[in-house]
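Record 1 of the preview.
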Amino acid sequence: MAKLQLRSVVKRFGQVIVCDGIDLDVEEGQMVCLIGASGAGKSTLLRCINLLEPIEEGEIFLDGHDIAVPGLDPQDVRGRIGMVFQNFNLFPHMTALENTMLAPRRVRGLSRAQLQPEVEALFGKFNLADRMHNYPDQLSGGQQQRVAIVRALAMRPEVMLFDEITSALDPQLVGEVLDVLLMLKQQGMTMVLATHEMGFARQAADKVCFLKDGQIIEEGPPSAVFDTPQKDATKAFLARALK
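->
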């Protein structure tokens, strides 16, 4: 059984269908990259998985249990499915360490003393040990995004979602954030990414899904999607994206 399964997921905003009957399987330890033009539905799909957006139709299964049923406590699900956004969303009046410990202290009910060794170890793992006591405006964009990833990991999630996390970064900072994703992949983290980084998707993904108009038009291993796409829409998108 796949770790994460979507079945016929539909999301509308008014009369606009943003996710149009999406089916997706994500195996444990897989990195799945969602590609497609802006407005294709990638970000909304991630927000539906994390229950930030309710779906109108369909099912979302985590370990075989439907997490999209009405009335389910979304906080429990968000403890198991972490999400990192394009914007870092760090509290400016808190240090990196304080930002990271806030949610797990509240949700996991741990004291600062209980949590701090675990969080400090995460900062060390991502080469941020000397930045723990800095405030966000004292950090580069790449460092802020890595802190945001550490903050999500401090919740001990089973699945991580990443929504265009390099798009707000200067080009020279993109690599250090992508390196974090490669490290997580090596550690066996299950991940779903919306990304415009085609080279990274080709290199690192286990599966690539091309979205257009709220549907997964084509999916498969990177070698198949990038080198021998079957659909005209995929070919047209890649011809533009890989220029």
